[in-house]
Amino acid sequence: MALLLCLGLTAALARGCLHCHGNFSDKFSFYRHHVNLKSWWVGDIPVSGSLLSDWSQDTMKELHLAIPAEITREKLNQVADAVYQRMDQLYQGKMYFPGYFPNELRAIFREQVHLIQNAIIESRIDCQRHCGIFQYETISCTNCTDSHVVCFGYNCESSAQWETAVQDLLQYINKWHNLISPSFTCLEPPHLANLTLENASECLTQH
Q1: What are phi and psi of 96, to 5 degrees?
Q2: How far does the signal peptide extend, from start to end residue (predicted)?
Q3: What's the CA gap between 4 and 205, in Å, rounded?
Q4: Which of 2, 24, 55, 200 has the fewest CB atoms within 10 Å around its CB?
Q5: Residue 11 confidence (pLDDT)
Q6: C-alpha dihedral over 167, 168, 174, 179, to 10 degrees?
Q7: Spatial separation of the C-alpha atoms in residues 81 and 87, rounded to whole Å
């Protein structure tokens, strides 16, 4: 059974993810400045403008992730392309009936949230294809800087690979987190052959 254990990660407050895309500012500036041309009802204009202005902030509120919002550049581009395509199609139309335009914006927003959630989680799950410590490059949605995620994959094909993976895990913890102590007997070589994910997780969380 291939499972995933993410190491050294804490939940981070973020403003969203789409704003880290290179075309976000230009795209959403255009959307905001042309919102007054999209509805017959004047009441739709401030509602739609608020949705667009708060897009990034509201995105993070709706993600509800227990892991940091860090997305690969490839997946960010995929999300951005999908969102911009739907937004551009919406703006190609003429003026809409009252209530239609802000409802469509909300629908696009919800789809974007799901796309970002799936993108971040899928990248973590992909770690299960590896044995031991694995790292992949990401963009931090907190400040749009380059970052990386370190995780531990359990997809080892032999007991020798598993023992090597756990030893690398111990070295990683010792180097970056300074958590190793003599009480880590549950991760010492005599116990590695029969070590399970549940036992390893319990051992780590108790120290």
Answers
A1: -105, 165
A2: 1-16
A3: 15
A4: 2
A5: 34
A6: -70
A7: 10
- Sequence-distant contacts of 82-90: CB under 8 A, at least 24 apart: 82/111, 82/112, 82/115, 83/18, 83/108, 83/111, 83/112, 83/115, 84/23, 84/27, 86/111, 87/27, 87/31, 90/38
**pLDDT of amino acid 55:** 94
Q: How far apart are CA 158 and CA 1, in angstroms?
A: 12
Structure tokens at 190: 């005599």
Q: Sign (positive/negative) of CA torsion 129, 179, 8, 198? A: positive
- Three-state DSSP class for residue 56: helix
**Secondary structure of 1-24 as H, E, C letters:** CCCEEECCCCCCCCCCCHHHCCCH
**Residue type for 102, please?**
P
CA distance 138 to 30: 28
Instruction: Look up residue 93 and give its two tokens.
Output: 């139309």
Alpha carbon distance 110, 79 (integer Å):
12
- The phi, psi pair for 47, rounded to 5°, reads -65, -45
Mean pLDDT, consecutive 10-residue stretches, the chain (207 aa), reads: 34 64 94 87 90 92 88 96 96 88 96 95 85 89 86 86 84 65 55 56 53
